[in-house]
Design brief:
Elements (H helix, E strand, L loop, with lengths): L4 E5 L5 E2 L15 E5 L28 E2 L4 H7 L3 E2 L3 E6 L5 H14 L4 E5 L4 H11 L7 E5 L3 H11 L3 E5 L16 H15 L7 E6 L12 H5 L2 E6 L6 E9 L7 E7 L2 E4 L3 H4 L8 E2 L1 E8 L2 E13 L7 E3 L4 H15 L6 E7 L11 H13 L2 E2 L3 E3 L2 E2 L5 E2 L4 H11 L3 E5 L12 E5 L2 H8 L1
Parallel strand pairs: 6-10, 6-11, 7-8, 7-9, 9-10, 18-19, 21-24, 24-25
Antiparallel strand pairs: 1-2, 1-3, 4-5, 11-12, 12-13, 13-14, 15-20, 16-17, 17-19, 22-23
Helix pairs in contact: 2-3
Length: 451
């Protein structure tokens, strides 16, 4: 008897009765593949059947989360790993995805929680070698399975009865019931669907972590559907030549989206940054030129950051403008404001900007610190190392208020800083004890006051 087949676009999952060169749904060429019609359907035995319940009658377990020994990860996930959650971790190659998840697996195993690490990219020997670099004592409750076949991985999950599943990575595994290649939309969607079914089983809840590749455009590879299927999407960022790594939640059903965890890459793995504000500020015994401090909001916490600048004579027609932690357009805008509203000529000056620690800055609250740092470099006059600048600077040269000013000022007061400069539009909180807060209306007024 002839096997019934269907033709499916590997890019958009559109179904056709016959093969054709171009998918009429998404417009791509050469993406239509032939699969067995029976294999395209999800088998009933894989579906966990549940009954209808009243919302108010559903019981929530008090112990709904696993609390890991990695505090920064707990913060990003909203207080720990939810027991029946499916989580995606994505990052550039070499950023530390596999290292972080292996550290997580070892942490769970030390707590006597059965953990299965499935790798389709590394052999068991390679994983053991990396584990020896991370820790001297490997616990008993961690299992390793190196395979590219998702069917075998599912058997291992059931055999070990693991509560924590880590898959590295979703683009390298395939299900035998589908003829599509690895990393195709059909395979990735169906493999994640299998893992979601296993995680949400009411009889055996499991937490799943999935590594997902990143494209050259620094976006998560695959269909947007993958993000909708899972409970959280975590983004690990950092440059290969820099030790700083930031872990951000771009989606989180169980906590705050945009929460940030801070790590530094060392020889023995990813280490948490225990005091972030001190990490991003240089300790000095005396005041120095071209260095200004500000407070930025990363997730739910306030970080004191240091902005350094270097202004030098340019011998070309087009001066250099470099800001490794600030968008170039934002830097050029602030330089134009400084020239037009404060009377400084920078048409023949190179301006180079750097944030200590390599943290990328997107908040407008750091605008004033950037400008003050540049002015200090031009005039060669130092800035008090216990002064902080928290203000957005408008195109008119006016100092504008920023959000969460109370939390920012209280954090500075707690850390022992002496003076903060803010906009006249902001209100000074009554809870401040020792911090002196000065208000200004315009950029010109503030520069004259400081220098």
């Amino acid at each position: 008897m002839k096997t019934k087949t269907k033709f499916i676009c590997s890019n958009c999952n559109a179904v056709f009765l016959g093969w054709q060169a171009k998918c009429t749904n998404c417009g791509n060429f050469g993406t239509i593949e032939e699969v067995e019609a029976s294999s395209y359907k999800t088998l009933d035995k894989d579906i966990v059947k549940t009954d209808v319940q009243k919302l108010k009658n559903i019981n929530i377990d008090k112990d709904i989360r696993f609390i890991t020994g990695i505090k920064e990860l707990n913060r990003v996930l909203g207080g720990g790993v939810v027991k029946d959650s499916v989580n995606i971790l994505t990052a550039r190659p070499g950023c530390g995805k596999s290292t972080l998840l292996l550290q997580l697996a070892l942490d769970f195993a030390r707590k006597k929680i059965k953990t299965l690490y499935i790798s389709a990219e590394e052999s068991a020997l390679q994983i053991k070698s990396r584990a020896n670099r991370i820790t001297k004592d490997i616990p008993d409750d961690i299992f390793i399975h190196s395979t590219t076949i998702m069917d075998d991985a599912i058997k291992s999950i059931k055999k070990t009865d693991a509560e924590i599943i880590i898959l590295d990575s979703i683009q390298t595994v395939t299900l035998n019931e589908f003829t599509a290649r690895a990393a195709s939309p059909t395979q990735t969607v169906e493999c994640i669907s299998k893992l979601v079914t296993l995680a949400k089983d009411p009889n055996k809840k499991r937490a799943v972590f999935i590594v997902c590749h990143m494209t050259k455009q620094d976006e998560m590879a695959g269909l947007r559907t993958l993000e909708h299927m899972v409970d959280s999407v975590l983004l690990l960022e950092g440059q290969s030549d820099d030790s700083l790594r930031t872990l951000t939640s771009t989606k989180n059903r169980f906590g705050r989206t945009g929460e940030v965890g801070l790590f530094k890459m060392e020889e023995n793995g990813l280490l948490e940054i225990e005091n972030p504000s001190e990490f991003f500020v240089t300790k000095r015994e005396k005041d120095i030129c071209a260095s200004a401090l500000s407070v930025v909001k990363e997730g739910s916490r306030m970080l004191v950051v240091e902005v350094e600048s270097l202004v030098s004579k340019s011998f070309t027609n087009y001066p250099i403008r470099i800001g490794d932690s600030l968008k170039k357009d934002q830097l050029n805008t602030l330089i134009s404001i400084l020239e037009q509203r404060a009377g400084f000529n920078l048409y023949d000056r190179n301006v180079i900007l750097k944030v200590t620690g390599g943290l990328s800055i997107t908040e407008q609250a750091v605008n004033l610190a950037v400008i003050v740092s540049i002015v200090s470099s031009i005039l060669n006059k130092p800035i008090a190392r216990d002064s902080v600048f928290i203000c957005e600077v408008g195109l008119t040269g006016e100092l504008k208020k920023v959000t969460n000013i109370k939390e920012r000022l209280l954090e500075l007061d707690r850390m022992g800083y002496k003076k903060a400069y803010i906009s006249y539009e902001n209100t000074i909180p009554k809870e401040i004890k020792n911090l002196k807060v000065e208000k200004s209306k315009t950029l010109k007024e503030l520069i004259d006051k400081i220098f």
